[in-house]
Amino acid sequence: xxxxxxxxxxxxxPLEVVFDAFTSAGGQExxxxxDDPGWIVETACELRVGGAWxxxxxxxxxxxxxxxxxxxxIERPHRLLVATTEHRPDGRRLDFGTEFLFAARDGSxxxxxxxxxxxxxxxxxEHGRGVPNALARLDRAIKxxxxx
Length: 148
What we know:
Blueprint: E1 5-11, H1 15-22, H2 25-32, E2 40-45, E3 52-60, E4 63-75, E5 79-87, E6 93-105, E7 108-116, H3 121-147
Helix pairs in contact: 1-3, 2-3
């Protein structure tokens, strides 16, 4: 059996705030963003079972990744299950499952992302490095929003 990628982050905000930020355009842009000048993030989300959340992101128009997440389960504010198709700039296509779990903990929220179906250790390591950065960016976006 191929191991999963599991990443967890505690965010100092209530469950509903984190879930709503995660499923909003601003939160999704934070997840896939970078601080690099010229970094591109375009997102569209139809938050319903069978709906799609599409993200296009990368350092330039000539080097873009495209993710299409189709919602298989939405249990607001605790769980999202999506079937993910990733198109890479080199033409490769990856299909895998992603589950997002949101759990309340003492006024904060523990956000856990679990990916299954990534076929190689190299892909799992790559995602395991990138996802913590994405969750840290979401955390910062929520903190900025909560302080306003």
